[in-house]
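task queued by scheduler; priority normal; single chain, no ligands, no partner chains; default sampling; output format set to structure tokens
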Amino acid sequence: MNQELKIGEISKPRFEFRSFGQEFDKAVFRMGRLSVPVPEKVWERHSEEIYIISRTNDINNTKIRDGKMDIKTYVQTVDGLEQWNPLMKGEFPMKAKVLLEEVFPAFQVEIPELVKDEYGYDEFIAMIRQHPDLAAVKVVKQRFGYMVNNTICEWGYVFINGARLVTINSESTEIEDIRKTIQDIGLEGVENINYLQAIKRVIGMIHKPFAN
């Protein structure tokens, strides 16, 4: 029996389709018309986050919002859809032991020398900016939530270090529901990429174009 998804609530790990480009107007229109009513709290959401991008890592997704760090790790790809699981959560100031044993290993880079017992947010970001294989990237999101075929959907404007993109997605615990949504809103054949890949393209770590 399929689990009923609820927007804004935690469920078992989901699969996700997401793409980025300059516009998805036709798909956004269809998403809006096909959506069932959703809670007002997800009609429109704004957030400002810092993503820690590593030149040598594509399997751990690290972001910081409101002084709290969230790392998700890639699990598997099934039928072209990615599944991610929580890896760690923490907040600043952060113990050097946590940085040494959990955070920097997730970046898969050489670990800088840690001389203090704990580090504040500004100190951590300074370490990131000094590291040759890491980048701290500001991501501002304006997202609009929907639900189509029992999949949690959104489209939104994403500003990556000020560069504007449009993103659109569908996520669910059920792969077939996502595939049907992709078909219904007209996104078949459109590239599925995650935030790590999109950010790397914007900042020049990956040299590939977006969907449009």
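post-processing summary
- The chain has one domain: 15-203.
- DSSP finds five helices and ten strands in the chain.
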